[in-house]
Amino acid sequence: MAGMRSQTVAVMVAVLATLASGHSDTTSVLLTADNFQAEIDGSNYFVMFYAPWCDYCKKLAPTWASLAQARNGEADTLVKIGRVDCTTDGDLCTQHDITGYPMLKLFRKGASGGDGGTKYRGARDLAQLGAFLDEQLATGAGAKGGEDGSLEDGATDAPPAPVSPLVELTEDTFAKHVSAGKHFVKFYAPWCGHCTKLAPTWEELARSLEHERDIRVSKIDCTQYRPICTDFEVKGYPTLLWIEDGKKIEKYTGPRTHADLRQYVARMAGGLQADGEGADEGEKKPADGTLEGGAEREDNRSVVVQLTEGDFASAIASGVTVVKFYAPWCGHCMRLAPTWEQLAEKLAARADVTIAKVDCTVDANKELCGEQEVNGYPTVFLYRAGEKVTEYFGHRSLDDLHEFVLQHLPENGAHDEL
C-alpha cells in the first residue's frame, strides 16, 4: 500500500510540475461508437461519460485532464483515460446504462461490448481517482492485471466480482419465479451460436434493469429443462418470451441490441399497446405523445405540455408546474413516459397544475437543461409561481407521483422547501 500511495503522490507532483512549467495538458482520449471497442480491446480504460452542458462535468474537466496527462503520458501505462460525449454518442451511453453525468467507469482490457465496466463512486479529486486506479489495477503492489481482468502474482486485494442480476432458472425455481410480475425470459441452449452471441447483451440488459421493482430478466437452459421449454412452445434458440403472472404474453422477434431490447421492455412494462392502436406497423406510439425516436405524434392526444427554451419561463410563471427533463434514447425515460401521460390526464381538470416535459437533446434546449442543473435522465422538478421548489426522488408509480404533486398544492399547506 505504501508503494501505491507513493506512486499516486509522484503522479500528482509530476502533473503540478508540468502545469507550472506552462506546458498544455495531455487531454483524455475521445471515444466514440466507432473506436470504443477497438480502444478497450487494446488497453484498460477509465472513461468519463459526460454532457458538455453539465456543470458537474465542467467542474471535473480540469481534474480529468490532469489525470489523463499523467496516465496517458506514461510509455508503459496500465490504464488510459478517455471520455465519451453522450450528446453526440447517445447510443453508446445507452449501451453502458449512463443515466447521470458525469459517470466514471473502468473497463478492463479486452472487455466485451456487453461488459458494463466498474463504476467509480468515490470523491472526484486527483488523489482519490489515482488511488482507485492503483487499487483496481494493483499497480506498485507486485501484481499485474491479466488480460481477463484478474490479478496475477498472488495478489489478494482484488475486489469481489459483482453478483449478476441475471437469474438462472431451473425446474425447481421457474414456476414460482414467473408466477407474479413481469418477466423477460431467454430460453436457450449452450451449444447455440446465436445464444452465445446474445449472452453478453442479455447480461447487460439484466444489469441495466436491476433497480426496476417489477421487472425481472432471466434465462433457462432448455437442454437441461426441456419439459418447461416444451410447455412454453419453444421451438428454436434463443427464444425470448415476455411473461406476466405466469402467462406467456408474446414472443419477442425484434433486433437484439441492448437499446432495442430495453425499448421493448419499456413498451411492454408501460402498457403502450392501447396507445399504439391505429399506428402504422413499425411506428408504435409511446403514451408520452412522441413517436419512437422523439418525433411528435400528429393526433395531439397527449395532454403533457412539451416545453422549449423559448416558452419555459412563461409556462412555469404561475401555478404549479411539474417538468420531466428527458432524452428520447433514455430507457428510464421511456419507462416513465406512459405514467407521465397518466399523471397529466389525472390532473387535467386543474387549471393551476401543468404537467410538462423538456427534451434535453434538442440543441435549443441544452442551455436550458444546463441552467436548470439537469444532470441525469429523467429529472423531475416541481416549480411554483416561476420558482423551482424541489426535485422528485421517489418511486415513479402514478400514485406516488400524484401524491407528490398534491402535497405541493397551496390548499394542502405547501411551502417552499429549504
TrEMBL record:
One annotated Gene Ontology cellular component of this protein: endoplasmic reticulum
Range of residues in the leader sequence: 1-22
Keyword Membrane in record: no
Region (Disordered): 274-299
Thioredoxin domain ranges (all copies): 4-138, 152-270, 273-410
Keywords tagged on the record: Signal
Gene Ontology process terms (BP): protein folding
Gene3D superfamilies associated with the record: Glutaredoxin
GO molecular function, one term: protein disulfide isomerase activity
Superkingdom as given in the UniProt entry: Eukaryota
Cross-referenced Pfam families: Thioredoxin (PF00085)
Family listed: Belongs to the protein disulfide isomerase family.
Protein name: Thioredoxin domain-containing protein
Organism encoding this protein: Anopheles epiroticus
